[in-house]
Amino acid sequence: MNENAIEIRFYDLLQKIESYNEALNVMFWDLRTGAPKKAVDQRSKTIGVLSSEVFRLKTSNEMKELLDQLSIQEELSVKTSAAVEESMKEYKKYEKIPEKEYAEYVMLQTKAESVWETAKETSDFSLFAPYLEKLIEANKKFLTYWGYEGTPYNTLLDFYEPGMTTDILDRVFNSLRERIVPLVKRIAGSNKQPDTSFIYQTFPVEGQRKASEFFLKELGYDFSAGRLDETVHPFQISLNRSDVRVTTKYDANDFRTAIFGTIHECGHALYEQNISADLEGTLLCSGTSYGIHESQSLFYENFVGRSFGFWKRHYETLREFSPEQLNSVSLEDFYFAINESKPSLIRIEADELTYPLHIMIRYEIEKELFNGNLAVADLPRVWNEKYEEYLGVTPPNDAKGVLQDVHWSGGSFGYFPSYALGLLYAAQIRESMLKDLPDLEERIEKGELSGILAWLSERIHQYGKTKKPLQLLMEVTGEELNPTYLIDFLEEKYTKLYSL
Amino acid sequence: MNENAIEIRFYDLLQKIESYNEALNVMFWDLRTGAPKKAVDQRSKTIGVLSSEVFRLKTSNEMKELLDQLSIQEELSVKTSAAVEESMKEYKKYEKIPEKEYAEYVMLQTKAESVWETAKETSDFSLFAPYLEKLIEANKKFLTYWGYEGTPYNTLLDFYEPGMTTDILDRVFNSLRERIVPLVKRIAGSNKQPDTSFIYQTFPVEGQRKASEFFLKELGYDFSAGRLDETVHPFQISLNRSDVRVTTKYDANDFRTAIFGTIHECGHALYEQNISADLEGTLLCSGTSYGIHESQSLFYENFVGRSFGFWKRHYETLREFSPEQLNSVSLEDFYFAINESKPSLIRIEADELTYPLHIMIRYEIEKELFNGNLAVADLPRVWNEKYEEYLGVTPPNDAKGVLQDVHWSGGSFGYFPSYALGLLYAAQIRESMLKDLPDLEERIEKGELSGILAWLSERIHQYGKTKKPLQLLMEVTGEELNPTYLIDFLEEKYTKLYSL
Prior knowledge:
Two copies of one chain form a homodimer.
Chain A: H1 3-33, H2 40-58, H3 61-71, H4 78-95, H5 99-122, H6 125-146, H7 152-160, H8 166-188, H9 205-219, E1 228-230, E2 236-240, E3 243-248, H10 255-273, H11 290-304, H12 308-321, H13 323-326, H14 331-338, H15 355-371, H16 379-391, H17 417-436, H18 440-446, H19 450-459, H20 469-477, H21 484-497
Parallel strand pairs in A: 1-3
Antiparallel strand pairs in A: 2-3
Helix pairs in contact in A: 1-2, 1-3, 3-4, 5-6, 8-15, 8-21, 9-10, 9-12, 10-11, 11-17, 12-18, 15-16, 15-17, 17-21
C-alpha cells in the first residue's frame, strides 16, 4: 500500500470516530435540552454502545497498524503529524489498561456520580468517601501503566493541559497567592462597597432571552451555525464545526447568571466556530486544551463583558429589557455591582478575583492525593482549613465544601487547574493583543468587536489541536506562562473600583 | 456455545443495531426541528457513516452465523422467532445485492431526490424522467435477486406490508371504486354544501399550539415519554420506546393542518408508546407494518377526530383558542365544514372519502410499471387520465400531478397502498371494537378515551412486530381484509352529511 492510501485509510478511520462523536454529542445535547424524562434509561444504553465503539476504534489493531506505518513516514504534513500524535496519545492512554479493568472503572464512575449526588444532597461525605478512594486507587493503578515524568500528577494534568506540570503550576500559583490574597483582604476592609440589591429584583425571563441573543450576535456568534437553548447548567457543545451550540440559564432573580453565562459560553463557541474547515473530521477540530478553551470564554466574559466600555455601550440596551429593575441604577453603580468581589464558598459563583483561589485549593489537594500521602478521610478538614486560610470563610457543611463539585466523582483529577490557567492565559493573550490593537478598550466601547475576534481566530482558533497549548502561548505572546499580566490587571482594576 | 449464549449474542447484536438507529433518529429529528442550516453538510456525512454501519451489521457474517444457528434450534420463544424472522428478512433483502450496486443505488436515490425537487419547482417532468427510469430499472434488477411470488410488484409491496399482494389489493380496490366513485359524484351534485369560508380566517398560532397540546393529552399521549415540535412536514418518530416524538405544522390561515395533523401523528405515537417494554432493542419494537401504523393514525384522525361526538365535547375548547374566528360558527356548521368532501388534485390535502382514490391511481400506475409495460414517458398522460376518470379533475401541470409526491424519487415503490390499507384496516378494526365497546361514540362524546386506547393497545400496540399485519388483522377482527366496513361507514356518514 502506498503512503497516500495509508493516509486515506487513516483519515477515514478518524472520520468514523468523529461521526460517532457527533452522534454522541447530539444525543448528549438532546438529553440536556429537552428529551422527555422517561427517555433517559434507553438513551444511556445507546450512549454506552456508541462510546464503547469509539473506545474500540481508538484502540483497534487497525489504528495501531496505521499509526505505526504513518510514524515511519517522512514528510508528513503538519495536519497529519498532529492527527497522528493526537491519535497515538489516545491509543496509548487506553490500550495499556486491561479491558476488564477499564470496564470496571467506567462502572465505578457511573456509580460514584450517583452516590456523590446523594452525598451532596444530604451533605454526608462519608457516603462518597469509599467511592472517591476507589477512584483514586484506580487512577494510581492506571498511572503505573501510563508512567510519568517528574511527578505522577503531571500525567493527569497532561490529559487536560498537554505539557502542564506541577513545577509550572507551583510557580504561577505561588505568585498569584502572594498578591491576590492580600488584595482580597484589602477589598474586604474597604469603606467603598457596591450596592448590589437591585440585582436580585426581577428581570423578566423573556428579556434575558432577548439580551442573551443580542450579546451573542454582538460578539460575533454565527446563528446559522449554532443555536441557543436553556439548560440547568449552561454549556457549549460542538456537534460539528458548523453546528456549535450554546446554552444558558435564566434566573429571574439574578440576571448575571444568564448574561455572563451566555458571554462565557459564547467565548467557547467562537473558538469552535472559527477552527479551520480543513480540520473537520480529524480529531483536531476542537480547542487544543481545556485551559486554552477557557482562556477564550474568560477573555470574552471578563475582559470584554465585565469591562466599563462594554457597558457604556450596552447598558441602555440591557435597561430596555428590564426597565423597572435598572432605570434607577446608574451605569457606574451597575458596573461596580457586577464586578463586586467578595470571598465565597462556592467556586462556580465566585468573582474573577477570588476564583483562582478556589482553584488553587483544589490543585493543592489533588497534588497531595497523587504525589503525597493525603488520605480521603482528611479531605473535609483540609478543605475547610484551606478555605479559611485563602478566603477567610469556612464551609458550614460538606455540601458547601468538599462535596460541591462534580469533577472528582467522575474521576476527573487534573481538570481543575485548567480553569485558573484559562484566566492566566487570557490575561497574557490580552497583553499581546494590546500591542497589535492598542485601542482595544475603545473598540469594545464602540462595539467594534470583529477585529478582536479576527485577531484571536488568526492566532489561536484556526489551529484547533494542531498546536499544543504551551507552544501556542509562546507563539502568540512570545513568552512562557507569566502570571504577572493577570495579577497586574486585577490589582489595577480592583484598586480603582474599591478606591484602595 | 450453548443455545442461551447464542441468543445473548444475537440480542446484543440487535441492541447494537437499535442503538445506531436511535442515534440516527435523534440526528434526523434534530435536522428537522432546529439544527442550524450550516450543520447539514457534515451531519449528512455522519448519517452516512452510521447508516453504512447499520447496513454492515445487518448483513454481517456474525448475523448470518447467529441466524443460521438460531434457525435450527427448537422451541425458540415467540419473541426470538419473530426477531430471527425480521433479521433474516433484512439480511436477505440486502445481502443479495452486490455491495457496489447497492452503493450506486444509494447515490442515485440522493441525486434523484434533489432532481425531483427542482423538477417539481419548475413543473418539468422531463428533468426527473431519466432518474425515475434508472430507479425503476435498478429495482427491476434487484427483483431478479429477490425473486417474487405471483407478480414482481408483490415483492415490493411486501417490504411495506408483509403478506400483501396485488390479488388482495385488486379485490378490495375494485370494491372501493365501485361504490366510492358514484358517492363522490352524488356529493358533487348535492344542493347541500358546507360553508368553509371561516376556516381560512386567522387562527393564532399560539392558540393552535395550545390546542395541539390539549388534544395530545386528551387522546392519551404521554408527554413524559415524548414531545411536540413544529416542522414543515409533520411526522412522528420513535427514538426509543420511551421517547416517541411528534411534530406538527401551524398554518395561521388553516387550523385544520395543525389540529388534524397533530391528531394523526398522535395515533402513530400511541402505537409506539404502548409497545411491550420487553421488545425494546430487538428490531421488533415498532409498528408491524406501514399499513397497520397508518390504521392507528387514521383511526384517531377520522373515527375520533372527525366525529360529531368529539366536537360536541371539544368545540367550546377550540373556540377559546380562536374566539374571533369561531364564535359565530355553530357546532353543526363546524362539523360539516371539517368533513367537506370535494375532489382535489393533491393527495395530502384530500378528504377521507376521496383519499383512497388518489392511492388507487398510484397503485395502478406502480403495478403497471413493474408487472406491465407502462413507460416512464407516458406517466404524465396516464396520471392525468386517471385523475379525470376517478376524481373528475385534471392537473393543470405536472407539479400538481405526477410530480407531487416525494416517494418515487426515493425509490419507494409499493409504499402508497399502505395509506389506503390504513383506512381499510382502521374501519375493520373499529367494527370489531364496536362489539366490545358498543358505546364507542358515547365514550368519545364523554371524553372517555382511555378504554379505547386500552383496547387498541391490548390487541395491537403491545405486539410490535411480533405479529405480521394480516395475521394481526385476522386475530383482531376474525376475518380477512374486508372493504365493506370502510365503504359502509363512508356511505352512511356522507349520505347523512350531504342529505343524499
